[in-house]
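Translate sequence into structure tokens.
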Amino acid sequence: MEQLRAAARLQIVLGHLGRPSAGAVVAHPTSGTISSASFHPQQFQYTLDNNVLTLEQRKFYEENGFLVIKNLVPDADIQRFRNEFEKICRKEVKPLGLTVMRDVTISKSEYAPSEKMITKVQDFQEDKELFRYCTLPEILKYVECFTGPNIMAMHTMLINKPPDSGKKTSRHPLHQDLHYFPFRPSDLIVCAWTAMEHISRNNGCLVVLPGTHKGSLKPHDYPKWEGGVNKMFHGIQDYEENKARVHLVMEKGDTVFFHPLLIHGSGQNKTQGFRKDIWMFRARLVKGERTNL
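Result follows.
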């Protein structure tokens, strides 16, 4: 029954996406500043009492809405996820319910089964190998610091960010993930996002606007950009353009946890390689508080 309810939620999420029919914590900023304000225990709103996060880590997440844990996921697990993704691309495995998305800049006539044609796979809850990510003890112990127990994986994805074709469609506009989610409350939802290789500004790392998780859900639409716009990506329509930004340069296995209202995005992949990450959203199931919109 729980799986059926989760599947129903995921279908709503996909509808919002408009899919095609077919432990140290240091996020080194490259622009702007981040802060770790003074808190009294009763002031914690976005983290729960736990024996995993240090006081400084709790303060950091409370103030900024994200937290990077270095070297969290072992190399062996990363390699297993990579191997399974390659099998999916080659159509050697076809997990039930999986959505496979191709590069929008590649015409159908050029299509051939390989990882160079696939930009993402999502809803991998029926793929036992990829779903291992959602059950890793290293991940779960941190997730529960934000959600508490009794949690469910609500959305899963592996991104294979392609080299930009020159049309700038590899960039992802600034957005809030809660825009896509029909469930609440937002403070009991967290994203775990793990780098599967070195990720920098050169190949399109995440960029976050610290502290924006304290605001409200903003209107989203296609960005008003010159150049290419990926039809799969909405962006927020009003934000302070001069607000400080932090670019999250990460190594393989590094994992960032962030709030669903945090404004974030990613830039172009200016390299010739594909940039991979794997992530999921976890939500705590609270009777009487979860709302479908």
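Note: The chain has five helices and 13 strands.
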